Amino acid sequence: MKKLFAVLGYPIGHSMSPIMLNDVLASYEMDAHYHPFKVSPDELGTAVRGLKAIGIKGFNVTIPHKSAIIPFLDGVDELAMSIGAVNTVVNDNGKLIGYNTDGYGFIKGLDPYITSFSDKKILVIGAGGAARAIYFTMAKLKPLAIDITNRTVSKAEELIEACPFESNSKSLSLEEAAANLNEYDVVIQTTMIGMYPKISEVPISLSNLNAQALVCDIIYNPLETQFLKEAQQKGATVQNGVEMFVYQGALAFEKWTGIFPDVNRMRENVLQQLGGAKC
Ligand code: ATR
By alpha-carbon position, which residue is closest to atom 5 of ligand 1? Predict the structure, then answer.
């Protein structure tokens, strides 16, 4: 019998996951289908019960349901619970268990550049949901330092206080971070600044960027944000948000099937969906 996988969101039409993951399922000749479901916030509980009743194998959860879904699950893994957000649900013998693969997805994408975090000084820009997943997951890996800068500094401070993993962290204003930017080996841009259509905006000045730094932006539309353009002009290595998107999907697929899929194939698929351009 065909196995069902899904993604729940509201809206959901923009999601690149169905085309990416159906292509991966087909490449392994699996008799399975991954379907997008538009589920309004007040129907989320009913939808989850329905999916459980029909024996769904697993599903993704996207905006705006990543936190709201937690009470409807049978269990949530420790990291996802501390982040307070679930993006992947596995049906484990009739029990729906929630995970968060966003943070690990981001970190997996850094594999070609970083083998150990113990000597790395990291700056996270932003203190929203995406920053929380990345910061908590990275803090667990004990980097030399991991600081957070945000327009509202108190939110960066709150994130540091809420993190269950001990880390060498401080909060900074955007101005302080820009002034001290040369200290950082890795800079991670997690806000929506620079996303289409406001593509000329940048969150902080890069004048003091260390030319040896790795600069990441979790935005993938456009593939090259103004922030990454400026970082590249400074000589830094840059990475856009396609890697995080691909790897969070690959880790979800692995949780459902036991197979870590071909990420090169997934990346090509996503780049095609985004218009064929390459960063
Ligand atoms: P997500 O869950 O996608 O990460 P979010 O929770 O809305 O999104 O968080 C958005 C992040 O972008 C926050 O860090 C926000 O800063 P504040 O905490 O000060 O609101 C940041 N952000 C959004 N618009 C911004 C702007 N115009 N200038 C600076 N920071 C901005």
Answer: 128
